[in-house]
Specification:
There is one protein chain. By secondary structure, this protein is of the alpha/beta class. It contains ten helices and seven strands. Strands 3-2-1-4-5-7-6 form a seven-stranded mixed sheet, with helices on both faces. Helix 4 links the parallel strand 1 and strand 2.
């Protein structure tokens, strides 16, 4: 299967989850990711030759997202979880509570590849769609007209212009009770990602656009009743014991200067 430059980055977070599961399970343990390891292209996975920090950063994103998912399922037991740009994420398998419906949204070629490795489950539904079109949200609302939705977009928005992110959020405001969680980098964090992180993981030519210095300003630009529920440092709840000194320093600098963060927003109209 041939994937575009952006779609091909789907292996990066999976590599991070496998690495953390094998070496730092206190950060994240992902049994499903470990089971996938032998089914993937050779040369993509293995150890920390690309540097430990990028691998831990990817695993930390999934660990952070899991906390928001668990909190949402406790607060809104009748809700559903939607993963935009799902790639090969295995969050459903880590967080399934036996009742919550999940929707996985990605481009058709990615969904096809995902289906071959992670077959669709009864409560984990795949939707082949562009995240920035309304086809997928209309399909979900046909199934669940009133259910609260948590939309998670891990590692997705970096690759798109800010106007497209704002347009997506404004579009979602027309579809009821929706919360969104995503990770974002500051302007300085973006420069570091493009200079070091993407080169380390073999995607130095990938262009990134979206950065966020002020989440409240973004909510104002979205308009309506959009508001920021929380903005948290990326590594504040990530265990650091046993990590290389260079990784611990990078994590501390990131949090100290707010370079990477987790954003939780409400998109009610």
């Amino acid at each position: 299967m041939e994937l575009g430059e952006i779609e091909s980055t789907l292996f990066v977070p999976l590599n991070g989850r496998i690495y953390a599961s094998e070496h730092f399970p206190a950060i994240l343990y992902d049994r499903k990711a470990l089971l996938l390891k032998e089914k993937l292209p050779e040369g993509i996975f293995g150890n920390d030759r690309s540097g430990q920090y990028p691998l831990v950063a990817s695993a930390s994103r999934s660990a952070n997202m899991d906390r928001y998912v668990k909190d949402f399922m406790m607060r809104k037991p009748g809700g559903a979880v939607v993963q935009l740009g799902c790639g090969l994420e295995t969050a459903f398998h880590r967080n399934d509570d036996g009742r919550t419906i999940w929707y996985e949204v990605d481009l058709p070629d990615v969904i096809s590849y995902r289906q071959s490795l992670l077959p669709e489950q009864q409560r984990d539904i795949y939707l082949a769609s562009d995240a920035f079109c309304d086809e997928w949200i209309r399909s979900i609302r046909k199934d669940l007209p009133k259910a609260p939705l948590l939309i998670i977009a891990g590692g997705l928005f970096h690759y798109f212009e800010k106007d497209r992110i704002i347009g997506l959020m404004r579009m979602l405001q027309r579809f009821g009770d929706i919360e969104m969680v995503f990770d974002a980098v500051s302007r300085k964090g973006m420069a570091m990602m493009m200079r070091r992180y993407m080169k380390q993981v073999g995607h130095g030519d990938t262009v990134m656009f979206f950065y966020l210095d002020d989440a409240d300003e973004l909510a104002m630009q979205v308009g309506g009743s959009a508001c920021v529920l929380s903005e948290k440092p990326y590594y504040s709840r990530i265990p650091k014991r046993g990590l290389k000194l260079s990784s611990r320093i990078s994590m501390a600098v990131s949090d100290r200067f707010n370079m990477v963060k987790m954003i939780h927003m409400s998109l009610h109209t």
